[in-house]
User: Fold these one by one.
Assistant:
Number 1:
Amino acid sequence: MKDYYIGGIERLEKQAQLVVNKAFQEAFLQDYSKEVLESCNENRLKDFFRTIQNLVAIETSPLTIDQVKQILLASETGGVALQAFTNYTCKRCNTVNTWHNSAVPMLCDKCREEAALKIINSKVLLQLNINVTNRKEEII
Ligand SMILES: [Zn+2]
């Protein structure tokens, strides 16, 4: 598995060099090098790989996490809202939260952020962006 993570890290480093090099310096307190990766244990490599996967996905996504969160929120809330602070239970983590009106969302902010990150990480948005770009070129 170490080779799998090192290969993945190298692929991401080619894709988004600045992002990966910055994350590498923060994590290992030195410049990016394959030798440092090879000297790491598997768990540290796995954690670093997951961290930079998220960072590169965010960097290359056509939408920000906040924009995806707003889209999710729009799909969660609806109906007639009475202007009164209302408690609700997050459908994912079961924490009790407060919303500013009675049209409460399904998720708490933390779970919505995790969902937004999963959507950005799924590459669906990136593919959508590529398709839109291709379409633009066809029109021109
Ligand atoms: Zn939650």
Number 2:
Amino acid sequence: MSDPSTLVAAAKPAVFWTDRADAPTPAEPLHGSFSSDLCIVGGGFTGLWAALQALEDNPGRSVVVLEADVCGSGASSRNGGFCDPSLTHGFLNGLKHWPAEIHTLERLGRQNFDDLLDSIDRFAIHADVQRVDEVSFATSETQLEWQQEESETLTAHGIEHTLLDQRAAHAVAHSPTYLGGLTSSDIALVDPARLAWGLRRAVQRIGGVIHDHSRVTQIDADEQRIRVGTDHGAIHAQRVIVATNAWAEPLRHMRRYIVPVYDHVLMTEPLSAAQMADIGWSGREGLADAGNQFHYYRLTADDRILWGGYDANYHWNNGMGPDYEQRTESHELLARHFFETFPQLEGLRFSHRWAGPIGTTTKFAATFGTKHGDRLAWVGGYTGLGVAASRFGAGVALDLVDGLATERSMIEMVRRRPMPFPPEPLRSLAIRTTRNALAKQDQTGESGPWLRLLDSMGVGFDS
Ligand SMILES: Cc1cc2nc3c(=O)[nH]c(=O)nc-3n(C[C@H](O)[C@H](O)[C@H](O)COP(=O)(O)OP(=O)(O)OC[C@H]3O[C@@H](n4cnc5c(N)ncnc54)[C@H](O)[C@@H]3O)c2cc1C
């Protein structure tokens, strides 16, 4: 096998999706003091969808987005582009945490997904949308058993899916690691940066104001207005939505519920026609494997393979920043796993390597909160499935600041926050212990005492 360290060292340390000549020019930073009806902090998918929906619902409303870096530069342009209708990080995780509302959550998720695709069409956003199936492969006997159990649960709830035997799994793509698989229906694959850029353009086109390089450092409220301050200005707003996801500044309260975990990605160079034929994969499905620690992978428009996941890293005290975006060990591990999955691609090189912060909660799905007499709402924590769910989160946050008791704003997922993470040093210890226990469960199939304890506390992940 090619040496993973040589391959990784040769890849460009940059996000493939944004490493393009046609990236938009950043908007002017905020200078001075202004008023607005709605101020949104953070210009990722959540912030941009909130702005777009606010302006569509009420064209007279003045909306300002303040973004610390450049809109979309956070998780929103660094992800795999799997746009999955689930609001709950998959059906099983939703069933585990919100059993009484699971069918409502599924329906709201499907509606949100359809509306998202409709907005992409209406605003002519060129996000390279491909409607495909999603296939998760069992690569161990344990995973085969898990998929069998999952299939029984899905059947009991009337959720469409197909269980694949080894032969059928190999018909999707050719890998010696596949023992079986489970196909779930209809997701979309998108080009995440082009989606973020298109949303940003749409917001500006219908009257929203965007300020890049405008980090919000302080939020204070009096009875009239909320002051949202940056180093060089302030917005005095009637309503505020904080959409910073994994970043818990400027609302430190969020860090009780959302922790940043860095997820790593490799992008290959384009495959030749012969290499494409060697791996099959003619349906261009969104693929993953079925462990707790899993890889996700997909093809791009120019036949590269995006290969990410598996080794997510939390850093002390919610550590974030560029230092964590190039973790050589994680990229080398990914490279090794890539060639174990597709040994026939020996000789293929990686063009890009990067990482991004996933905001996660103890229920592995979004959480919500309000402040200042419900004039401010915050949302985040979609974990690894926020491309579609961020639009839903944005809509709920708008309902919350507008005081609208809608079906979506009344669900338990919105009304009740998950168990908070403990402060450091327990936070690091708990996250490390959970990670090790999940890895062990992947090997042995057994839950072990730590995962059973978390389960009894309503904490944890069921993929
Ligand atoms: C590597 C990776 C792969 C992923 N793959 C998938 C996938 O395939 N499918 C899927 O559904 N999800 C995936 N996700 C998750 C998904 O990308 C996120 O859930 C989603 O993008 C969250 O959007 P957001 O707007 O809430 O957060 P972000 O996109 O992170 O936006 C938050 C924004 O807030 C800004 N900000 C922070 N602090 C401040 C401040 N003080 N003032 C102003 N602005 C501030 C940041 O600069 C950032 O732009 C992945 C995530 C990562 C990192």
